[in-house]
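Usage

Read records sequentially. Each one opens with the input sequence:
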Amino acid sequence: MTDQRLRELFNDLAETLPEGSSRAGELWRQGTRSRTRRRWTVAGAAAAVTVLVVAGIVVPSEPVERAVTVHPSGTPTPTISPAPARETAPPPSGETKLPTLATALPEKWADLPVVTAVPGPVLGVAQFGDGRIYLMKSGGRVPLDVKLDNAVDAGGNRGTPLKPNALAPDGTMAAFPQPDEVVVVDLVIGRARRYPVPGFNEVVLWRGEQLLVEQEEANYLLDLATGKVRRQPYKGFAGVAGYRDLRIVSPEEGGWTVIREGESEVELDVRDITNEGAMPVGVLDNHGWQRGGLVARSAFAGYDQGKGADVVVVADVATGRVVRTLRLPWGDPPGWRCGKEGCPVRGWIRQDTVIIESRDRLLGWNIATGALSRVADLPDNVTAYSLRGW
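and closes with the structure output:
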């Protein structure tokens, strides 16, 4: 199959609405007012069976047997899974030569004026050096007028309340972890609601009409419609951003890295891909991101001739098989591209492009073609941000 055919298939399947969009905001607002407002909606046709093509591999939405090939004789013969396609990004100095990927997100965040109001959807939420949080729109950035404290862990260490998964996939709500509570803001009407959640809340992950709230010693599932909180049978910061309850778990010493969903798990074999063959443990701002039947996650790749690098891994959720990787060399100081959290994944654009943070720039990596593009430039005074789903 040619690259052109792959691109045509992806364009046919590209979604215009974020996956797992939440109705929680609407449930929350029902019965409290009657109003008419313009909504940005796009209608899409839903197929009975969706098919995703990645690196020449067809992945149906329903699980199928992938381990054997049945010949006319009826005797199953084991098959060897193809090796993942592997790319290497240019050095940091070469990013300026990459083509620009056209998206709704403003390319130059520093050029956005501060305004009190501007029409259009919320494309992101960002905290700037002045300490304020702004709603990022194509026509400017609007200050968010909500009182928030820093997120605090059990050791008293403080961090920004704005986390990478704070913005709901549809861009209508934002959630902020706080000590003993989570603040959820309806960005359409500008109203905040505070939900009691006991403990040192540090991370929030949207789960449709619910929020997964992560702490070092506990995880809670918060129902936004009822306010009920249920403690989960796990803890720590292994959750995957997306509508499914996925977790990527790497034992601290030895054992296998696995993708877990409920009571089931599959091995994620990254032994020859990441440093020590594992994924990061306990890194707050470096989660996996799910889209359809795939998950993307970055990790430290190790050193090659004294040069460090990160790697982004895309894997099949159903089987754990790695389908594509992108190695990101750090470059030379002081221009290293990966910060304290590495080069984390920050979301997806449609079904085929992973958003990756490379220091002060967002890159788009097309997993069908392997092409790398520039998405947006981040000014130095942006201290935290969250992007909506596309």
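Summary fields computed downstream for this record:
- Residues 5-18, 22-80 have pLDDT under 50 and may be disordered.
- The domain at 104-387 is CATH 2.120.10.30 (Neuraminidase).
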